Amino acid sequence: MSPPSPPSEDGRLAASLVAAFHALNRGKRATLVADLAMIDRLVTMLTAEQIATRVRELGQAISCDYATRSLVVVPVLKGSFVFAADLVRAIDLPLRVDFLGVRSYGTGTETSGVVQITQDLSRPIEHDDVLLVEDIVDTGLTMAHLTDLLKTRGPSSIKICTLLRKPSRTRVHVPVDYEGFSIDDRFVVGYGLDFAERHRNLPYIGVIEPGCAPGAR
Catalytic residue among 35, 120, 138, 177, which? Predict the structure, then answer.
């Protein structure tokens, strides 16, 4: 029997494509398994019901405090967008909403306080009462920078409303006028907060357990 002929160039190419296809599928399966493991390790810290109740309370307090004032609500993007959407609907007052996009710089999950404005306000805030809405205040560095920046624009007042606060991580004291929940130093996601741009759409606040997210804040 004559020895088998070596595979043709087309045959080698076909074999390579099949091997690449299977390798890609293995990679997708590995990613899917990793994603499912991540989801399995999310532990609920605050339920959707707890959040909704607290947001209504904050809205009532803000409505009382700003009853005769020119209120401009300024959500800090991206993390606060879900919280801000619910909050403004809980405020029973005429108000204006404008957005401030920021990017904080630092190493890992540690912010240096150096902030880049990625989206500025669309209108002046001179003589207005500004309410900065944030998803989470931890070191205080970013909020200190933003309040100092906005003070230069002549508002009548600037106050801060945050969904979450981590007192143990405070490096610069900033007055938080409206606080949803004070929490321990845990890496949290959901209700607008993300891990690598994922999990923002969860209706609750979840904790990523240790070992699940390297460098978790």
Answer: 138
Quick: pLDDT tens for 56-90: 999 999 999 999 999 999 999 999 999 999 999 99
At CB < 8 A and 24+ separation, what contacts does 110-113 make? 110/139, 110/217, 111/139, 111/141, 111/142, 112/141, 113/139, 113/141, 113/142, 113/144, 113/145, 113/172
Within its chain, how far is the Cα of 114 from the centroid? 18
**Is 138 one of the catalytic residues?**
yes
Q: Which residues have a Cβ under 8 Å from the Cβ of 33 and sit 6 or more positions away? A: none
Strand duo 157-165 + 110-119: pairing:
unpaired
Tell me the whole-structure pTM to 2 decimals. 0.75
What letter represents residue 108's amino acid? G
CA nearest to 147, candidates 74, 64, 68, 55: 74
